[in-house]
Amino acid sequence: xxxxxxxxxxxxxxxxxxxxxxxxxxxxxxxxxxxxxxxxxxxxxxxxxxxxxxxxxxxxxxxxxxxxxxxxxxxxxxxxxxxxxxxxxxxxxxxxxxxxxxxxxxxxxxxxxxxxxxxxxxxxxxxxxxxxxxxxxxxxxxxxxxxxxxxxxx
Length: 154
Fold this sequence. Notes:
By secondary structure, the protein is mainly beta. It is built from three helices and ten strands; from the N terminus they run βββββαβββββαα. The strands form two sheets. The protein has a five-stranded mixed β-sheet with strand order 8-1-2-10-9. The longest helix is centred in the last third of the chain and has 9 residues, at 145-153. The termini are far apart. The mean pLDDT is 87.
């Protein structure tokens, strides 16, 4: 039984790092599907897919986190999340787990001089000896909002 301060996250990997997003944001997890590239999109925007009539932009988190382009294979997954009224697909290596974490177990992100990614990190948590980086999806995609709105408008 979970308490009022417990939160659930879906965790997934990118390279050897594990990330988590709030389970309430997850709409679907699907296997890799080739995307349609968009002209003039930022490098981490791989393109779009048609998900049952909804155009969903796909973001390559490896590029977003400055680790290079994902060489997507059939083993990669797209974690489809809702951010406000928009659906976005996050390209990841694999989904790991669903975890329940007490809010008191979530540690703040340490200050990192010169790093611009702290704003989209919601915290850190250790689960069975693994460090999981929790993402703030709103902040992660904040600077992509214009592209997302354009994509949603068609």
